[in-house]
């Protein structure tokens, strides 16, 4: 019988289990958020009501993009994320209780409840979320420059959606990263839609990794929302960055199972496509592969899933039990005297 190691010689079973755990954690976290976010917002949808106010952008289906590269990173490496950041944050090791509390607007949150889900920031693991389209790329360039100036082998990874590849910050940042030969990796998550605009209606090139040639840097394309393929491409990109060989653009074909935001009527989308995408669920596919190729037993994976659920449930309870910031503390840590 063919062993799992023989099928996937480039990826250790332990790393595959880690990727499965992080994807399962992200999925369960967001499945719970779907329920929590709707509390208090009916019968008329009110974005400001309920325990989690504001817009909510979920990454269900896009988990391989985050785990496939974050498995190669350390706490000293920087990650910046866009407004759909939870799978990135979880894969980078952001404190889940503090992250959840931040989304609830509580004082125990990463930003003491002042940033919300689109402005998550955890310096302990060098993670930040800019919230605005393409805003995280210049920050990642700055982190990459700092690493090079200090003689460190740290890398900086900026995640963006495919729509952000048409923003000025994308081109300006990549030009400088290439000129300065910085350890930057730009991961483009192509989920087919920039808000409600189809990629083919807004982007002239078929895949954005082709743009790497314009800057004289490496580019790679990952098909099929495959975490193992993402792992292999990212391994090479991270090695190049650490060895002083400059930036890389990686674009991964991924799938957004949900709308652009919670409450999105998705009038631009043929909803008949979603069941087909769910049949190709990357988490289920990786789970089945681990079991079928004897990389993990059913009992081992159930243990992982139980651990994930407990951690996520505890994070939500922590957020619910935490206090809101006092009104008089609204400007604390915002301005210095």
UniProtKB/TrEMBL annotation:
Record's keyword terms, sorted: Coiled coil, Oxidoreductase, Pyruvate, Thiamine pyrophosphate
Listed Pfam families: E1_dh
GO biological process: pyruvate decarboxylation to acetyl-CoA
Superkingdom of the source species: Bacteria
UniProt xrefs under SUPFAM superfamilies: Thiamin diphosphate-binding fold (THDP-binding) (SSF52518)
Coiled-coil intervals: 287-314
EC number: 1.2.4.1
InterPro entries in UniProt: DH_E1 (IPR001017), PDH_E1_Alpha_Subunit (IPR050642), THDP-binding (IPR029061)
Required cofactor names: thiamine diphosphate
Record-level Gene Ontology MF annotations: pyruvate dehydrogenase (acetyl-transferring) activity
Gene3D superfamilies: 3.40.50.970
Domain Dehydrogenase E1 component intervals: 54-327
Top-tier EC class: oxidoreductase
The protein, known as: Pyruvate dehydrogenase E1 component alpha subunit
Organism: Planococcus koreensis
